[in-house]
Amino acid sequence: MSNTNQSAGHRAETTTSERIGMIWAEAADGIIGAGGTMPWSLPEDLAHFKRTTIGHPVIMGRKTWESFPEKFRPLPGRTNIVITRDASLHGALRAAGAVPVGSTDQALKAARAAEGAEEIWVIGGGEIYAALADGAHLAIKTVINASPKGDTKAPALDSAWTKLLSDPDSGWLTAANGTEYRVEAWERKS
Ligand SMILES: NC(=O)c1ccc[n+]([C@@H]2O[C@H](COP(=O)([O-])OP(=O)(O)OC[C@H]3O[C@@H](n4cnc5c(N)ncnc54)[C@H](OP(=O)(O)O)[C@@H]3O)[C@@H](O)[C@H]2O)c1
Question: DHFR domain: which residues (predicted)?
Fold first, then answer.
């Protein structure tokens, strides 16, 4: 059985068993990045990110790949699919353990061929969330109670999206370093 929506550019034909999720952490005003990195330190969120995505392919933009320290990439236990328009980068990306692709459609194709493809995780950054949001079913966002300056924003979740849960229901969790945050799960209904 399949589900096709021609109006969404990247909503290629998907099987009903496939789930495409987006995962990010955002501060006030939807800020997710500043100067090529994340403008906060929240180890608890990195652990949550790993627990959520481990065993499944992850799709990211070239700038997000470059935002990871070399010793932490590729993200272990996941096929790391990196999107770039610059074909001259493909050899180095491949040598570094990534699966380089030239478009979002190629990224989805590579993800569907990877281990753990019943769940595909879009892990950023801003350009890639924006390009793939229409085809995603799930969004897991960590909301951080801080207002850093930044240059990259999370995708806006429009009225097609419904909040499934928030942890905690109200208020905040407090990280070991004092940062307040909560984790929300959203589902796209249409
Ligand atoms: N808070 C979070 O959860 C989170 C998560 C991820 C990233 N981030 C942050 O987000 C920032 C990076 O995000 P970003 O929006 O600047 O960059 P990005 O989305 O990571 O990567 C952008 C790059 O992806 C490639 N690309 C984008 N669309 C493409 C398309 N349709 N076809 C082919 N290639 C395409 C291009 O690479 P080429 O230029 O090589 O062609 C483009 O420069 C960093 O600050 C990072 O720390 C935050």
Answer: 19-188
Query: pLDDT tens digit string along 104-116?
Result: 999 999 999 999 9
**How many alpha carbons fall within 13 Å on the CB side of residue 8?**
20
Interval 129-166: pLDDT, tens: 999 999 999 999 999 999 999 999 999 999 999 999 99
The pick from 41, 60, 127, 184 for probing ligand 1's pocket by mutation, whose C-beta has the most ligand atoms within 8 angstroms, reads 127
Three-state secondary structure call for residue 49: helix
Alpha-carbon span 172 to 4, nearest angstrom: 38
CA distances from 65 to 84, 105, 186 (A): 10, 18, 25
Q: Return the ligand 1 atom nearest residue 37 CA.
A: 47
CATH number at residue 71: 3.40.430.10
Residue 7 inside a domain? The answer is no
Provide the pLDDT confidence category of residue 44 given band limits of 50, 70 and 90: very high
Q: Which atom of ligand 1 lies closest to the CA of 64?
A: 20
Q: Per-residue pLDDT tens for 71-82?
A: 999 999 999 999
Q: Could you tell me the residue range of the domain that residue 152 belongs to?
A: 18-188
Task: Name every protein residue with a CB atom under 6 angstroms from any ligand 1 atom.
Answer: 24-25, 32-33, 36-38, 60-64, 67, 83-86, 102-104, 123-128, 131, 152
Domain count, the chain: 1
- 8 in a domain, yes or no? no
